[in-house]
Design goal:
Shape: globular
Oligomer: single chain
Distance between the termini: 75 Å
Number of strands: 12
Structural class: alpha/beta
Strand order of the largest sheet: 2-1-5-4-3
Strand content: 5-15%
Length: 648
């Protein structure tokens, strides 16, 4: 996904047409599975940003309308050096939406808090405040996917005008909404607001989203083939219930690389961080432990790509820190962040910005990254269709370690690096350059073998795009393996226990292994991090685990994994009860054991009966199978009751 857009390519494809004769009727309930609303935002010279159209109407509050309007335009109309008559770009933003609904939390009474004694009172208060205002209190985030068109015309005031087509959704489905915008954006500028009604109607007849699957979604006479992120990477407050399997979250690498393992798997990780490849391992650790990061880029598409790329770096970990792909001074959060004083702890968040004012306003943010180029070399589309299974027969010379090392350690570049660090991020006010400002000392060493495998794309734009696909696969595979191995020591705490042969499945299953941070760190220190991590981490690797346990990513991920493991264990024990031969089971029992078994079965049936209505609401498609199992269980109950009465 690149920054510029080729006007010819972004125009509506001749092969795409609306089926006006069979325009489907809008199903608002089905539509909300994918999108909340479709909006048109215009820039009025007197009133500023305004929502001109919203379909279906009445989906947003007045405050939300303002936030959407202000977030749907680049900071400057004249940000690009080329003065072409029309410039299109695609980006997305994210903001917090207050909801009254409450979502259940997994009990964590068996999990001991970590590091509280090491925190100052101010930090403890801030952590509690952040937890009290997070997703667990019913707040949901709304994503806005934007197709922005700037039209330069010297005859108009300010030398031009601009409008944005926006898709609002609770889902982080960039793989769906970016290609949809490539159709919808030009279509709106071709036929007007009818495009919104038609696209909304088409989306409302799509099947329900299935996380982690390849889906075919019809739109007009076209078909979108997209991979959705897996259920374990989606926030539990997304408003849609997804069934998760324990195997999908197990600490092992997938064999099929075309299946996404986290959010934003379609982001161009190599393209946006090409000038900072040696720093990716530092950024991975900062993401892992939930540190606040400010990303500066010349354009909204570039800062969005950088934020999405960072979030994708820690897959398959559930990333629970707030992130804003495109953040503006109009966001309500800005006033709170701007009020932080020297010595205040910056809350964990990733902010993608283009306005250099943030460098002065948010001086307390500890990690600043600048990415992207202020003058793109080409006008290729922001969103290029990307296949994660592409292979190329020939491979040019790689971006070898020597090339990275010479650029990093030559005397002139060393002096430049020292000057860059001394000047700090404010040097970006005069000249944009790719750099990172952070005092964090990384534990993980850059993997030279991975860097040597990366392919140099050369100057050809077509070859560069193809090589980015290969390089993204190499990088994403490596960091997926790195994260998976880092999380592997937690595996025993999610291990389910099945009834042993000859034992009673009617007793309560044993609880999962309780977690204690001190015991975990002590055991890990004794046995080591494993062969994979030992070769890639320095001797202070245990400190990284300590920081991870204290960070904002650990507890939501751990609770989610525990809930899935407990659900899987209950399923296995329920299945064992169904498969039990009662007569053989009680043949060697004493009378007292038979009565105890009867009471246990009765207790389980009552528990299942109480949950059947909730089960029907959540999984209506499976309630018939469940009722059949209930009938079988009740028949076993009657049989056991009869046997028990005869034996007394």
């Amino acid at each position: 996904m690149k920054d510029g857009l080729n006007i010819a390519e972004m125009s509506r494809s001749p092969s795409f047409s609306m089926k006006t004769d069979s325009n489907p009727k809008l199903d608002r309930k089905s539509l909300r599975q994918w999108a909340v609303a479709f909006c048109i935002i215009k820039f009025d010279l007197e009133q500023g940003q305004l929502i001109e159209e919203c379909h279906p109407p009445g989906c947003l509050t007045q405050d939300e309308e303002l936030e959407v309007a202000f977030s749907s335009f680049p900071d400057s109309v004249s940000q690009h050096q080329n003065r072409s008559s029309i410039h299109d770009c695609i980006f997305f933003f994210r903001f917090r939406r207050q909801e009254s609904s409450q979502h259940g939390k997994v009990s964590s009474s068996e999990i001991s808090e970590v590091g509280e004694k090491e925190k100052s009172p101010k930090l403890v208060d801030q952590v509690k405040r952040l937890k009290s205002t997070g997703d667990c209190k019913g707040e949901r985030y709304l994503y806005g996917y934007v197709f922005n068109r700037q039209r330069h015309d010297e005859r108009l005031k300010r030398g031009g005008d601009q409008r944005s087509v926006v898709i609002l959704s609770h889902n982080p489905y960039t793989s769906v909404f970016r290609p949809l915008l490539q159709i919808m954006g030009p279509l709106y500028f071709d036929i007007g607001k009818k495009a919104l009604e038609h696209i909304a109607s088409c989306v409302s007849i799509w099947p329900a989203p299935i996380p982690g699957k390849l889906m075919e979604l019809p739109i007009g006479n076209a078909m979108l083939k997209v991979n959705l992120p897996p259920a374990h990477s989606l926030p539990s407050d997304s408003g849609v219930l997804f069934e998760e399997s324990n195997s999908s979250m197990a600490p092992f690498l997938p064999t099929n690389q075309s299946i996404p393992q986290g959010l934003f798997h379609d982001s161009d990780l190599f393209g946006i961080f090409r000038g900072l490849l040696l720093q990716l391992w530092v950024l991975w650790e900062l993401l892992l432990i939930g540190e606040p990061i400010l990303i500066i880029a010349p354009t909204p598409p570039q800062c969005c790509e950088a934020v999405a790329g960072l979030v994708s770096l820690v897959a398959p970990l559930l990333y629970s820190v707030d992130f804003r792909p495109y953040f503006t001074i109009h966001d309500p959060e800005f006033a709170r962040l701007n009020s932080l004083q020297e010595g205040d702890i910056f809350p964990p968040v990733i902010l993608g910005v283009t306005n250099l004012f943030f460098l002065k306003a948010l001086r307390t943010v500890p990690h600043v990254i600048s990415v992207g180029s202020p003058s793109p070399n080409s006008n290729r589309p922001v969103l290029a269709a990307r296949s994660s299974t592409g292979r190329f027969p020939a491979r040019p010379d790689g971006l070898g370690l020597q090339q990275f090392s010479l650029r990093k350690f030559s005397p002139s570049n060393l002096l430049s690096a020292v000057k860059l660090r001394r000047e700090g991020p404010l040097c970006l006010m005069t000249e944009h350059k790719e750099a990172i400002w952070s005092t964090y000392a990384a534990t993980t060493k850059p993997d030279t073998s991975i860097l040597n495998r990366l392919i140099d794309a050369g100057m050809s734009s077509r070859v560069e795009e193809s090589m980015s696909v290969v390089n993204n696969e190499i990088l994403r595979r490596h960091f997926l393996e790195l994260t998976t191995n880092f999380l592997a020591p937690f595996g025993p705490y999610f291990r389910v226990v099945t009834p042993s042969e000859g034992s009673s499945p009617f007793v309560d299953p044993p609880p999962l292994t309780p977690f204690n941070a001190d015991e975990f760190l002590g055991n890990l220190s004794s046995r080591g991090p494993g062969k994979f991590l030992s070769k890639r981490m320095r001797s202070n690797w245990l400190d990284l685990y300590r920081r991870f346990l204290r960070g904002n990513n650990f507890m939501p991920w751990f609770q989610r994994r525990r809930a899935v493991a407990e659900q899987e264990q209950q399923r296995l024990w329920r299945q064992a009860r169904m498969n039990t031969n009662i007569q053989n089971f009680i043949s060697e029992m004493s009378e007292l054991e038979i009565v105890d078994s009867f009471n246990a079965i009765e207790r389980h049936i009552l528990g299942e009966t109480q949950g059947v209505y909730k089960f029907k609401e959540k999984f209506q498609g499976r309630r018939i199978t469940y009722v059949i199992k209930m009938i079988l269980l009740i028949s076993l109950w009657i049989m056991l009751e009869s046997i028990a009465l005869n034996s007394l």
